[in-house]
Amino acid sequence: MIQRLGRAEIGDKTMVDVWAPVVEDLKNHQLTPERIDEYILKTALLRAKKGRHAYAADGSLGLVDPGSYSSGLLFKALLEAEENNYV
């Protein structure tokens, strides 16, 4: 639904660049905090095609996408809650 509403694709430097691989990892029971960090950091290598960073053109290179970062925090909190039997 995030992709449909925002018309974002993987590689657009949006939260989709974290959500898509996290969903796959969840399906395969392979999600770890380290993998989440990896997905977040990969957004720094991308040129923004959507959102406010897109207006900065190449100025977005080297910067982590804020939506990806906050999504990563959410997923890490969910992993921690599961680990501590809060869910």
TrEMBL record:
GO BP, one annotated term: glycerol metabolic process
Record's signal peptide: none
EC annotation from Swiss-Prot or TrEMBL: 2.7.-.-, 2.7.1.-
Domain DhaL: 1-80
Listed Pfam families: Dak2
InterPro entries: DhaL_dom (IPR004007), DhaL_dom_sf (IPR036117)
Domain of life of the organism encoding this protein: Bacteria
Keywords assigned by UniProt, alphabetized: Pyruvate, Transferase
Class of this enzyme: transferase
One Gene Ontology molecular-function label: glycerone kinase activity
Protein name: Phospho-enol-pyruvate-dihydroxy-acetone-phospho transferase, ADP-binding subunit DhaL
Provenance organism: Streptococcus infantarius
Gene name as annotated: dhaL_2
